[in-house]
Amino acid sequence: MSPAPPSGPAALSGPALCDPTALFTTAAPTLGTGHAFGTFGELLQGALPAPDSDFLVTFPLARWATAVFRPAPEAREVRVVPGHKGKSRRVAEAVLAALGESGGGLLELRGDLPEGKGMASSSADLVATVRAVGAAYGRTFTPAQTEAFLRGVEPADGVMYDEIVCFHHRAVRLRRRLGTLPPLVLVAHDEGGQVDTVTHNRTATAIGTSERHEYARLLDRLTGAVATGDLPAVGEVATRSAELNGRRRPRAGFPELRTLCREVDGHGLVLAHSGTLLGVLLDAHDPELDGKAAHIRAGCAPLGGEVSVHRALGVGDDWTPGRDPAASAAADGRFPTSHLAASAAPDNRPPAPLTTHRLEI
Fold first, then answer.
1. Distance between CA 149 and CA 276 in Å, rounded?
2. pTM here?
3. Which residues, in sequence order, are CB contacts of 262 under 8 Å at separation 6+?
4. Nearest 5°: phi and psi at 122?
5. Helix-then-strand count for the chain, H and E
6. In contact, 62 and 317? CB cutoff 8 Å
7. In sequence order, what are the beta bridge partners of 71?
8. CA–CA distance from 98 to each of 164, 171, 246 (Å)?
9. 150 near 126, Cβ under 8 Å?
């Protein structure tokens, strides 16, 4: 009699990822769904003194990518919708191979993370894909196993971890878990256009020795600030990271956003280092949040582009899209409802792909 198939996070470990014959497949595959949150740029991004030590610190956002996988054991390949998501198709095929499955299927991707803005849309697609294909066969994967599937596909953010992490994005490897912060909001200016993450990482200017030591100090300070919930220190580190990044890729509107941040007593600026967004960091429970957001919007008007409001994921949030943390916070009185955008479709219709929130304040 065959032993029961493994299940849960330990279903795949060690050699199982490399040796599909070490796995037991489920009796009948079914439709699988996976989700992954995006980020608002990075709290900190740079390089440490050691070789090959490029890193970023994630800033998880209450916006998600969703993947749905319909297995087709008789098919010879994975088909992906939208068709340009070829990297997600490659990851789906890698997961199937690790599971010992020779068939294919249909992979559908949707969500409300716009591409090329610095919100980890590609990484979220890939992580959601791993989770969806695994779910179709009754498997779950640890964050480290998910890293292994993504490694070699492209530089990736650490969105497989449900907290703020320091992540080696080029090596696709966790460096350090930092924890979570209280509820926060970003009022963001988008300078427009798109940035290709792969090209950006390939052509980025090298970081010098003195800056690498500064990044190490900033990482130590940020680690302590997240652990203690020191939001002013978090904001100072994030602002400094944006400043340093400006030496390699100047950000239009940085002086104006910095002035606006001071005027509304914001914690600091958060930058999408390989994107188009720059945001002012505010407390989600600030009673003057509406007025501050309106002031920032007015101040950004001469810059052109778009202004949007985003809710960070933090302490007490459910980190899946099944329970909208912004809506939950509003119900608790922690986050003014004027900053929320309805994204759910009526119950009698399937959810439609979501677009960037453009909130009138």
1. 28
2. 0.82
3. none
4. -70, -45
5. 9, 10
6. yes
7. 105
8. 28, 21, 42
9. yes
Q: Which residues does 255 contact at the CB level (< 8 Å), separation at least 6?
A: none
At 24, list the tokens. 């037991």
The three-state DSSP-derived secondary structure of 329-345 is: HHHCCCCCHHHCCCCCC
Dist CA 266 CA 232 (whole Å):
9
Look at residues 223, 35, 185 and name the one whose alpha carbon lies nearest to residue 123.
Answer: 35
CB 20 within 8 A of CB 98: yes
Report in angstroms the alpha-carbon separations of 317 from 28, 35, 112, 158, 271.
Answer: 34, 15, 18, 18, 23
CA nearest to 92, candidates 105, 111, 83, 81: 105
Q: How far is Cα 210 from Cα 215, in angstroms, rounded to an integer?
A: 9
Pick from 144, 98, 107, 127: which is nearest to 35 by CA? 127
* Measured distance CA(90)–CA(104) in Å, rounded: 11
Tell me the two tokens of residue 284. Answer: 């989600």
Angle subtended by helix axes 86-98 and 143-150, to nearest 10: 120
Q: Strand, helix or coil at 110? A: strand
How many residues are listed for the chain in this entry? 361
Rg (CA), the chain: 21
Short-list 358, 322, 315, CA closest to 339: 358
Tens digit of pLDDT per residue, the chain (361 long)? 434 433 333 345 443 454 433 444 444 689 999 999 999 999 999 999 999 899 999 999 999 999 999 999 999 899 999 999 999 999 999 999 999 999 999 999 999 999 999 999 999 999 999 999 999 999 999 999 999 999 989 899 999 999 999 999 999 999 999 999 999 999 999 988 766 555 545 556 789 999 999 999 999 999 999 999 999 999 999 999 999 998 888 888 999 999 999 999 999 999 999 899 999 999 999 999 999 999 999 999 999 999 999 999 999 898 888 654 444 443 333 334 343 333 322 233 233 332 333 332 2
Q: Which position has the token pair 């399937």?
A: 350
Q: What type of residue sits at position 120?
A: A
Residue 300 near residue 292, CB atoms below 8 Å: no
